[in-house]
Design a protein that fits this description.
Elements lengths: L1 H10 L4 H24 L3 H35 L5 H46 L2 E5 L2 H7 L5 E4 L2 E5 L1 E4 L2 E4 L6 H11 L3 E3 L6 H13 L5 E5 L2 H16 L5 E3 L8 H8 L2 E5 H11 L15 E5 L1 H7 L4 E7 L6 H34 L4 H17 L4 H7 L4 H17 L2 H5 L4 E4 L4 E4 L1 H7 L14 H10 L4 H33 L7 E4 L2 E4 L11 E2 L4 H9 L7 E8 H5 L4 E6 L6 H8 L3 E3 L9 E2 L3 E3 L2 H17 L4 E5 L2 H13 L5 E3 L7 H6 L7 E5 L12 H6 L2 E5 L6 H8 L9 E8 L3 H6 L2 H10 L10 H48 L3 H20 L5 H12 L7 H6 L2 H38 L5 E7 L4 E7 H6 L3 H33 L10 H29 L10 E2 L12 E5 L55
Parallel strand pairs: 6-18, 6-19, 7-9, 7-10, 8-9, 10-18, 16-30, 20-26, 21-26, 22-24, 22-25, 23-24, 25-26
Antiparallel strand pairs: 1-3, 2-3, 4-5, 11-17, 11-30, 12-13, 14-15, 27-28, 27-29
Length: 1109
Amino acid sequence: MSLINNVIRKIFGGTKSEKDIREIQPLVERINEIEKQLDAGTADELRAATKRLQAKIADAIKPQETEIAELQEKLETEDITSVNEREKMYDRIDELKKEIDEVIAKTLDEILPDAFAIVKNTARRFANNETVEVTATEYDKDLSAICPHITIDGDKAIWNHTWIAGGNPVTWNMIHYDVQLIGGTILHQGKIAEMATGEGKTLVATLPVFLNALAGRGVHVVTVNDYLAKRDAEWMGPIFQFHGLKVDCIDKHEPNSEARRRAYQADITYGTNNEFGFDYLRDNMAIRPDELVQREHNYAIVDEVDSVLIDDARTPLIISGPVSKKSNGDELFVEYRPRVERLYNAQKSLFTKTFAEAKSLIGSPEKEKAEEGAKLLLRAYKALPKTNALIKFLSEQGMKTLLTKTENIYMAENNKYMPIITDELFFVIDEKNNIIELTEKGIDFLSADLEDKNFFVLPDIGDKIAEIEKSTQSAEDKVKAKEDLIQDYAIKSERVHTINQLLKAYALFTIDQEYVVMDNQVKIVDEQTGRIMEGRRYSDGLHQAIEAKERVKVEAATQTHATITLQNYFRMYKKLAGMTGTAITEAKEFWDIYKMEVVTAPTNKPVIRKDYDDLIYKTRREKYNAVIDHIEELTNAGRPVLVGTTSVEISELLSRMLTRKKLPHTVLNAKLHQKEAEIVALAGQPGHITIATNMAGRGTDIKLTPEVKEAGGLAIIGTERHDSRRVDRQLRGRAGRQGDPGSSQFFVSLEDDLMRKFGSERIARIMDKMGLEEGEVIQHSMISKSIERAQQKVEENFFGIRKRLLEYDDVMNSQREVIYTKRRHALYGDRIGIDFANMMYDVCVSLVSNAHGNIDYEEFKFELLRILSLECPIDEQEYLRLSQDEIIEKIYNALLEIYNNRVSKISEQANPVIQKVYTEQGATYKNIVVPISDGRRMFNIVTNLEKAAKSEGRELVRSFLKTFILVSIDEAWKEHLRELDDLKQSVQNASYEHKDPLLIYKFESFDLFQAMLEKVNKEVVSSVLKAHIPLRAEAQEAQEQRHRSMSNMQARKDDAQQGQTNNMQDTRQQQKQMPVHNELRIGRNDPCPCGSGKKYKNCHGRSGAESLD
């Protein structure tokens, strides 16, 4: 196969990655030429080169920016009342903004060699010189006040090449080599750069980050944890700051703070994926423009892109609060736990009996008894497939093959004969798909002590409704019967869902593997990294079920206020790039979902690590004994060993075995993840043994001493093949960085989860035919490839699941975009007139389409009067004669006239008071509060005094529109999200009727969304047309409003159920902050370091001075 691949590569000129790199190579040569020229000049000339590039970008987009400014001025200063004309002008502004994006993209491509050369030469100057001296700018002086590595000497700024990063001093010693220039170009092109561990991806990112930051539209660098975000911002920051670019990290600042807003205004912003996503949600809950922190989503580089955009992609970020009504959902888990526990124990007893009988019959010489034994073995497997005794038995010669053969017989003809196996069980487990299904026997067991034997059975709602329709009841009785049926169905649906989730918790989720219990809380363990995922909870009530099982507090249910998945958040960026050491195995998913290509960059030095074929054992016990022996052998040779595990349980088992052997070692698992960087950094010491989960320590290199290199380098031992090839590649990649020696060896047994569920039957048959004794091992490249094919099956299965979940989320995402666009228009207020005109038109369309041909003229008149307080502008003859479109147009024009009259009336009533306040106290007051009522509610409208006075009161009406649209949208959207959550759960039952739940979800959610928009439109239009200023109302000064605090809201990943009863609380576990000391400590009366000659307290030490780090 490899020969065929080589022939094809030669015919077509290599792989796609190789072709891409050949195209980039001329750019690399050009960058190095320019860099040599820059190196011959001074540091001031280097800085001037940056200014020239910024000027070139500004000149390129000047025509479009000038036209936009003219249009905006025209919209603000001229009285343009025509909605159509204003809409055309706004459309033109949108077109010009797209043109600007295109021009910037083209210009950045042109200046790429120059920009990359500037960064490389800056790195060279810092690496080769202890200090770099330049003519001091105001920015240098500002930085010198807070950065100890910058000092001002007269008109010169002296930059030292040692600064603080991550709490420790670092001396800059890096210069970009050619493969890093290739990686930087790949990132600028909006692709994923797959670069091996140790190739310096953090340094690579400085190239495209600097280039794209020159446009002044913001660049986001996304990391997987806050330690890396803060460290990288401080470590790489001076390279950018030297050229006048501002750098900040959002994780250093509190959410919704002015400091975080400034962090987003910086040219380059570092942060964690979660915080970027949560800030987006918080921005879309803001009630004033100055509460917004984020800018437009321009360009982002995602570090460890596979972890963020694959592993965490479908995890929803949620801001939530307590449910508005009392819910006993959490109580149901506690109430039904004893029943499920008894059911699970009954299944365990049945399994024990069935399994024992199967073992006794399978070896019988009588064919019938042997077949009965095989049938019972399959039944035991369907009952509890994860039981250790069964796993061990299936690893014996011929047993796995026998089970598969028997299963195929009973699965024939679309599972026709499977009930023979499963009817005797209480529930059936499909381990591959993580599904549990109650049998009739299980339902009877659960309801044995209840009078209602259908207590845990969902009624067939379709048949029941048909029976009600056919009955002779009155219309009122039929309606009541249907309502009772639907209510009963909803109650039973929640009950059955609770039982199913409790069953999953008992049968499929194991403590110290999928989760741990710490501080009386259930915490999820990341299957990829082994880290505890603080704040994350299993969705659909599963987390509550596990809490009930472990007898810790079952957290109360919450209501979603705003939500988005990381998948959809990152798809909003105009340009998205990523870097990682392991992406090529997920290349199809990256392209299908994000339209991002994966390009494999070459290594700076050839990889000389030895990757050995897998060692296959029959049982886990044999495998672990072999692992310990191999570790002892390697440490005796003076080599450090990194042992990769897939769970906390295995880490602790190996630790106990090493302790018995008196081999000193360090363990890094979910319970010790805070020490990750420290433990991984020591993993390269001679003879050091480190046990860690397969992807632990990403972002921290394992550096080897010369004696370790001589001994053979770092030895990687994998104790199990992971479901994903990417994770195994990541573990292997810990060794062999930058041409270091090393080796990797995986130990596998037939009892491992991957081998049990997806392992090739061929492997089992080979081992059976060879008649291997206990402790014997097989090793062959063919076996290793067979295991990789099994991994590929799992990856394809997971991709299918992720893609289907994305389709569900896309439905909500399209609705979210509509709502958030309306909300943003209302918040800024610039297009609010157009939006309100569209709302009025939509209300007219809705009313006329529902009424015309369905109700008579008198009813239609009443509807207009009730909803819009509008006298019908047409008579009965016109109502019958005119078409729908003609009636809509007449009603819309009548509404528009009423609206204009209402605006004039409110303006005329408020203007004298506003003018008086502005004349007498305009210098004192910034905003004023004017009460406005819609007849049902009173709103205290805050409006800008100066704008209201100059517009003769019209600004007040616009402020009222803004307030009411925001209130209406927020309330409706919150309720809509709750309905979508309920819908997503309820449609899953459609699969029992052989219908596609996703299709039903799309149709039903669209109807819900249409109904929500219609409700919002009617509510807003009705209230605005009834708006008036109450008699004796007075305009008052608006007190300076504080930023709306969202720290009392719960920000979480997944379906967290941690809301409090009274207030919304942020219940995320706060990570311990690293002791980062990167500020210069100066006495208040000392001279300011900026060289101004003033005291520090009167210069950069003034209270409230902005941080520029």
